[in-house]
Amino acid sequence: MHWSAQHTDNAARFLSDLDRSGYDFFTGVPCSLLGALLERLSGDGRYYPAVREDAAIGMASGAYLAGRRPVVLMQNSGLGYSLNVLTSLNLIYKIPVLCLITYRGQGPDAPEHWVMGRSCEALLRDIGIRASVPAPDGLAQALQEATRSMKETGEPYALLIQRGIFGA
User: Fold this and answer.
1) Cα(54)–Cα(60) distance, rounded to whole angstroms?
2) Is the pTM of this model over 0.90?
3) Listing from the earlier edge strand, what are the strands of the sheet with 130-132?
């Protein structure tokens, strides 16, 4: 698929920010809203696809324990699959992973995204995972805050990625 120049520029800038911040392990389940980002990571051979989002959290947790700085990419519908592993592994044992979660269900979208779209921020808050919804021009600052938070708390952090930043 071909992404717009804006999508690819945003992806290139954000990946540079991730690299400068030391993130070096990328896994997850694809979503078109992360398209340009996933295309660059896959093209560089740095993306390890997972069969489900909870498996991606497990892979990222193992990578962290092996000394890596992991990022998990997923659609917010996959947050439901991930709640158990996030609460019973990552939060309990202080295993920080950066979660890039697409914020589906905001504005026009397929009906299957509506419920999670209106619930994902509350779900994250209820289980104690900090999250933010960065604007396209606020990605670098949001990443800095997420990195700082994870260093201080040892807990995961979620960046909810809106439609149009990296893809459809």
Assistant:
1) 10
2) yes
3) 47-49, 25-28, 70-75, 98-102, 157-161, 130-132
Q: How many residues does the chain have?
A: 168
Q: Is 103 exposed, middle or buried (0-12, 13-18, 19+ CB in 10 A)?
A: buried
According to CATH, the topology of domain 5-161 is Rossmann fold (3.40.50)
DSSP state for residue 106 in the 8-state scheme: S
Q: Which parts of the chain are beta strand (E)? A: 25-28, 47-49, 70-75, 98-102, 130-132, 157-161
Task: Write the DSSP string, 53-113.
Answer: HHHHHHHHHHHHHTT--EEEEEEGGGHHHHHHHIIIIIHHHT---EEEEE-TTSSS--GGG
Q: What is the pLDDT of residues 82-138, one digit of tens each?
A: 999 999 999 999 999 999 999 987 777 676 776 677 889 999 999 999 999 999 999
Bridge partners, 74 (sequence order): 101
Give the CB-side neighbour count of residue 84, counting CA atoms within 13 A.
5
Residue-range domain boundaries for the chain: 5-161
